[in-house]
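DM between two lab members

TW: hey, do you still have the Ribosomal RNA small subunit methyltransferase H entry open?
JB: yeah, one sec
JB: this one, 297 aa:
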Amino acid sequence: MLHEIEDLLANASTVLDCTLGGGGHSAAFLERGMRVTGVDRDPRALASARERLADYERAGQFRALLGNYADLSGAGLADVEKFDGILLDLGVSSHQFDDLSRGFSFREGAPLDMRMGTDADLDAAELLNTIDEVDLSALLRAYADEPRAARMAREIIRRRERRPFATADDLVDAIRAVLGPRSGAPDFARIFQAVRIAVNDELAGLERALPALRERLTPGGVLAIISYHSGEDRLVKNAFRDWSASCTCPPRLMMCACRGVPLGETLTRRPVNATDDEVESNTRARSARLRAWRLAR
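TW: and the structure you got?
JB:
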């Protein structure tokens, strides 16, 4: 959704790319003459992006920081620093998914890892081998919308008692045992995504990050977020709605006791989806939802 992002941040002179990845979005911003700060929790991604954008880094137009967008101060970003545009492209980057050793794929033989960076406490195998049944059931229900979450949790516990989970095959077999032999890629992708979200604390991290990112905007600055999971999109939608409301008091309160004015305005009434042409060239874009919000001047 590069063109849509470029249009939303067209007036920015300084941009914070919170999920640098391969540097594709940042490269487009830099080509437009913007100054860019890129953040990523994946050391490999950061190194690759720095190599790609080395000329801009040498010119002082680009800098790269290792860290989690949910803790920008920990990544080395000064608390007082603000930006005209901020981009958050959630989910797994293509280079992470395509690298079998990273363990994001359900392809045969892939390790159960799924850590986006070194800050994750457990990899996917450790999570599946240690989480209790109640928490696992809740995880599958909340992050995968799985109606048979309790049964699947029991199946995973039963199987790990016989042999610890180690590869994608172990989880795929457990899914098939519960959903049946006709289960396929969409089911695997949904369950694997749920485990990945838990491994990387993605939803909790996004919830913490949203107000902090808003505070990083200059007056009139734009926050653009691409999400790929209904839970992510719900958090973004609700935050933008609340920030755009003139009153956030409970309905029964007789007199307004909140700020009384909106903090800014939502720029996308509904989520923007990838075009058919983009989905055709990149099937992973089919679940992308873009929302944007602008801070009041």
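TW: got it. The chain has a mean pLDDT of 92. Residues 121-200 form a domain with the DNA polymerase; domain 1 fold (CATH 1.10.150.170).
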